Amino acid sequence: MRKGDFVSCATMIANRDPAEFMCPDTIDLARQDHSYIACGYGPHLCLGANLARREIAVGIHERLTRAHLSNQRGYVADDLWGSCIRAQKFNFDWS
Predict the structure, then answer these.
(1) pTM of the model
(2) What SS3 state is found at 84?
(3) Which element (helix H / strand E) includes 80?
(4) CA distances, 91 to each of 14, 34, 95 (Å)
(5) pLDDT at 83
(6) Rg of the chain over all Cα atoms, to the nearest angstrom
(7) Is the distance from CB of 53 to CB of 61 less than 8 angstroms?
(8) pLDDT tens digit string along 2-49?
(9) 87: which strand partners?
(10) β-bridge pairing 92-94 and 85-87
(11) Closest CA relative to residue 77, chosen from 87, 67, 63, 65
């Protein structure tokens, strides 16, 4: 690395530290530890962070309680790893 080189740090990586998070590779929507830094930290905390978290929680709850989901027969999800942990696709039957 040389003086003036651009350095990039993906903050999502900090939220997967096994010293801080039990089962950091598991998606747990009920996780109670809110020490992650996705919305900034300290004086740089996003002013809308609490509203955004609440909107996401309500939106997910409403969507899932109004839908009847069933996994398509024989489908197995493939995990993709990159800057985010996510499934490549979901094959659900919505009814």
Answers:
(1) 0.42
(2) coil
(3) strand 79-81
(4) 30, 30, 13
(5) 57
(6) 17
(7) no
(8) 888 887 777 666 677 788 778 888 877 777 776 666 777 778 788 888
(9) 79
(10) unpaired
(11) 87
